[in-house]
Amino acid sequence: MPGAAATGVPDGALGGIVSRTLTAARHGPVGVVLRVAAMAMAAVGASWIHRVNDPGVLCPLRAFTGIPCPLCGGTTVFIEFGSGRPAQAVLANPVALTGALGVALAPLGLGGRWWALQPKTRAWLLGSALVGSELWQLVRLGLLRV
Q1: Which residues contact 36 (CB under 8 A, 6 or more apart)?
Q2: Mutual angle of helices 28-52 and 74-82, in 10-degree steps
Q3: Are 19 and 9 in contact (CB under 8 A)?
Q4: Measured between alpha carbons, how far is 112 from 114 in angstroms, rounded to an integer?
Q5: How far apart are CA 26 and CA 127, in angstroms?
Q6: pTM of this prediction?
Q7: CB count, 10 Å around CB of 72?
């Protein structure tokens, strides 16, 4: 493949397979299946690692201050899914789960709708999601009473 080294894809038969897989992961239902399969493998792997050796709190902000960041619980989402507990995964961080679903479904063209929004609208939506996520984490971890 010409330019394979420039793209980081190895030369030869393996390079062709990797290149075709990466191209397929960008478009259509095959892309969704490949992304969901990769996420599922990561979730099962994270769940296994967590079961064998619990690394404790991974969020640097929470480790040093005790205050969670808006993305706290993102790893827990994958650990809970990989352990077969979807309800606990949703409760860990709904925003992280929504983001993961957005990445998984992006090959179906949903990303085009996102980028079609005005930049101010996208910023407002992301900001609102992060504020909502932070409030969720503060309540979930008992730092804010409702």
Answers
A1: 104
A2: 90
A3: yes
A4: 5
A5: 27
A6: 0.70
A7: 24
* Closest listed residue to residue 75, CA positions, set 100, 103, 105, 104: 100
> Contact 71/93 with Cβ under 8 angstroms?
yes
Token look-up 């205050």 returns 67
The dihedral sign for the CA sequence 60, 61, 63, 69: negative
Query: Among the residues of the chain, which ranges form H helices?
Result: 4-7, 12-24, 28-52, 60-65, 74-82, 86-92, 94-105, 110-116, 119-140
Q: How many CB atoms lie within 10 A of CB 21?
A: 12
Helix H or strand E segment including 27: none
pLDDT tens, residue by residue, 33-86: 888 888 889 888 888 888 888 777 878 888 899 899 898 888 888 888 888 999
